[in-house]
Structure formats: structure tokens, C-alpha cells
Amino acid sequence: xPAGSRHQKELGQAARVTMSPTTALPWLLxxxxxxxxxxxxxxxxxxxxxxxxxxxxxxxxxxxxGWALAVVALLVPHPLGLTGLRLAAPAALAAAVTAVLTGDxxxxxxxxxxxxxxxxxxxxxxxxxxxxxxxxxxYGDERRHLLRPPRVLLLGPIPLAWAVLLLAVAGGPLLLASxxxxxxxxxxxxxxxxxxxxxxxxxxxxxxxxxLVPAGLVLKDHFAVVDPVLLRRVDIEVLRRAPxxxxxxxxxxxxxxxxxxxxxxxxxxxxRVVLGxxxxxxxxxxxMRFTPTRPGKVLTDAHARRIRVx
Length: 310
Description:
- It is a single chain.
- By secondary structure, the chain is of the alpha+beta class.
- The chain has helices at residues 3-19, 24-34, 36-39, 41-48, 53-75, 79-102, 107-124, 127-134, 151-154, 157-177, 181-204, 295-304, and strands at 143-146, 209-213, 216-220, 229-232, 236-241, 249-250, 260-273, 280-290.
- The longest helix is centred in the first third of the chain and has 24 residues, at 79-102.
- It starts with a helix and ends in a 6-residue tail after the last helix.
């Protein structure tokens, strides 16, 4: 094949990879979220109707505000928007379940509320949604791929932090609306800083990436390494699915799922984080493994950027 034709083919492959983060998904998610006031609204309204006017109004304002913030996140893709969406979508599902259990909505309204919020939450939690939103803040010709969170966090701390954050945000205003001024004031005073701390902690999970850049591959994971590690394309011997029993340095931080392994021509320096302590360990490694949310997509994108994959 002539050099020019080969170059054009590579450019075409790269363009297809760049343009293919499931183009229909953003629009489907936007459509589902935009119609939530109509699909889930009647059931929520039926649950709020018997409440005192101040409580119902406060809850309504909170629901509308959460919905509007998620709309902004979906219209302006950004890693911060991914955090907000993944807080808001399960909250909408929780609100719908609570409304159905405590309210007096009809069967059709209840079914529509549960179905629409379940679909919205499922779409928000898809790996493809994460890839789309974190790349909204990408610089130049880079492609970010989210890394999976550690299993130990998935089994309890993440859901617990989400629940506590929602209580910290909603508890104070609802208590004040119910006339419990002292309890409400204390809840607001405690809830605001608590929500900020938990929000920042949850947002840190969306800032862990394997980033394909013109020079090669960057591992940016503050759970595993102190500073991002650049694996230059010319130094990558092969990028592949990690085989069983591999001796590659484990940078997966205990995350579930299929791990990838990068083997290098020569070792690169890195400073590894020691989980469960404040210590770090400087060293060098010529092979390391990590766990992206979409390992197949990482290999496809890497191949399009002339990184050898196996």
C-alpha cells in the first residue's frame, strides 16, 4: 500500500475512533432527563400534596434545582458534570421510590416515575457516559478513559457517602421549612461543610484516567501514583489485556473488572501510593497494570494512535 494511502487510512481510523463515543447516547440521556418533570413529576407531586405548604415548596425547589443542575451538566460536558449527574440521577430514583411508597399516585403515574428514573440512572452510570463527560474537559488531542474505583469503596463507602451527602443538603432546609428552627440551623451548619467534603471526595473518583496523548499513554491516578506517569509510545512494547499471573506492577488499587497491562522497553520512574497510609514508595517499573472502565475502547483508541496492542 502506498505511504499516502496508508496515512489516510490511519487518519480515517483515528477519526472514527474519536467520533464514536456512542453519538446517540448523549442525546438519549438528555431526552430522558428533560422529560423527567413530566414522567416523574405527577407521582412526586402526589406525594408532596398532603405535606405542609412550606415543606412541599422547599422539596419542590430542591427537586427543580437538582434537575436543572443535571441539565446544565448534560449540555456542557465536563468531569464536574459527571459527578453532579451521578449524584442527581440516583437521587431522582430514590425520590420516585419514596413518592410511590408514601404518596397516593395512580398506578400509571407510579410506573412511569419508576421507569423513567430507573432509565435515567442506568444511563448516567454507563461507562460510555463517563467517557463522554470527562472528555468534555480534555485538552487538545488527548482522549481520557476513566479508571474503575477500588472494590472496597464500591461495597459501601461510595453509596454511604452519596446518601449522607443528600441528607446533608436536604435535611437542613426541610427541617427549617417544618418550623424546627434550632435543629434546622444546626443541620445547615453541619450539612454544608459535610456536603462540600463528601462532594469533593466523590468528585475525585472522576479524576482518575488513563489518557491517550500524542506522546503515548499517561496514567493519572492519585490512588495509585503520586504524579501522573507518562508511558511514551516509542517505549511501549505492547498494551494488552493483563494475563493471569502477570508480574506487572499492580496499579489497579483493587478495582474489579478486566485489567490492561502496559509492557515497556525499559523501566520508567514513578512514586507509588501506599494505600491505607500516607506513605509513598519511589521506584521504577517496566510493566504495570490498570483497570479502565472500558478496556476494549482503550485498546482500540491506542491502536489508532499507533501504539502496539496485543
